[in-house]
Design goal:
The protein is of the alpha/beta class. The chain is built from 13 helices and 15 strands. It is globular and about 55 Å long.
Length: 338
């Protein structure tokens, strides 16, 4: 299999706190902690899958920032283009998870206003370290969350194509969060999507953002797009190619512990498949597998990722075998020893 080129992500990372035993915040007196953030989640999963991966961002010179850098390094992520800001803090968020009649939902409480990452700007991307990565990368990945961080971050991502190498593909996860666009002006998100080669989106968020989830209309409106990946909650995901080809793969059965981070894990699995030159069905399967592993973790990132042998089994499984697999905490059906 051909070796993968450099993968680069751009976006915020924060420390996350969550009540132990998934208690309501009003009743919680003990908290666990982790590190999260859409593009950080993708970067750490890609690196753990064995792909050369760099992350471009900004952090405060505080303990939270030091922890994030440590987690990135332990995952194998290059942080040479992460700027350190002595005057702005690293962001923080709190997760509150509830279970009702078997359904699991999570409410997020963000403390990111004025964070170091909110000062991400065109100058960040033009720094010597970032510029060297962005011009040499095989793929650069970011999301609509980065476009919403601040006016300077919006300006940076709306001009992103101009700072990429001529052969660098741009991957965008729509990550449309209406609460982040309080004034209703989503022009930065529109400008980011207009530059993308590859777009990830959920059907529900596509309808909320664009007024529809029709792939053909999205291709017509965005001439640079060649691939759209549509996620349909717990049902299936689909690849749509500009030429009209479509591939659909159903989700795995999963015992959900906590849902946050599954979309980021899906993107990482799919991008790993692309980097390994796999076909669309295998890319979707890898996306589902990583998402399932994230769903069975209380944190925002999978506790484990499929190694090369696991990935070969996932890609090569028959449709019947794939449909029979169920993922539970600590049990991955594609591992022979599971």
């Amino acid at each position: 299999m051909r070796s993968a080129g450099l993968q680069v992500t751009i976006g915020e990372a924060m420390v996350v706190l969550y009540p132990e035993d998934q208690r309501p915040l009003a009743e919680a007196d003990r908290f666990g902690s982790d590190v999260g953030g859409a593009e950080f989640n993708v970067a750490t999963s890609l690196a753990r899958l064995g792909l050369p991966t760099s992350w471009v961002s900004r952090l405060g010179t505080d303990g939270f920032g030091a922890r994030i850098r440590r987690v990135a390094g332990e995952s194998g992520v290059d942080t040479s283009a992460v700027e350190l800001d002595p005057s702005r803090p690293t962001g923080l968020y709190v997760k509150e998870t509830t279970r009702t009649a078997g359904d699991v939902s999570t409410r997020m409480h963000y403390h990111r206003s004025g964070s170091a990452a909110s000062a991400l700007s065109s100058a960040t991307l033009a720094s010597p370290a970032a510029a060297a990565l962005l011009t040499s990368a095989e793929l650069v990945h970011t999301s609509g969350i980065t476009a919403a961080l601040s006016p300077t971050a919006a300006e940076a991502v709306t001009g992103l194509r101009a700072v990429l190498g001529p052969d660098t593909r741009l991957s965008v996860d729509l990550n449309y969060r209406p609460q982040l666009w309080g004034d209703g002006d989503t022009s930065a998100l529109t400008g980011l999507v207009a530059q993308a080669d590859l777009l990830f989106l959920g059907r529900d968020e596509a309808e909320a953002c664009f007024g529809h989830g029709d792939a053909r209309r999205l291709f017509d409106a965005h001439p640079l797009l060649d691939t759209i990946v549509v996620k349909e909650d717990a049902h299936r995901a689909s690849v749509h190619r500009r030429g009209g080809a479509e591939v659909h793969v159903r989700c795995l059965s999963v015992d959900v512990v906590e849902p946050i981070g599954a979309g980021d894990a899906f993107a990482a699995g799919f991008l790993c498949g692309l980097a390994e030159r796999r076909d669309d069905a295998a890319c979707l399967r890898l996306g589902h597998a990583l998402a399932a592993l994230a769903l069975t973790s209380a944190g925002d990132r999978p506790l484990s990722v499929p190694d090369e042998m696991d990935r070969e089994r996932i890609a090569g499984a028959s449709d019947e075998e794939w449909a029979s697999w169920a993922v539970r905490p600590g049990a991955s059906p594609w591992r022979r020893s599971s």
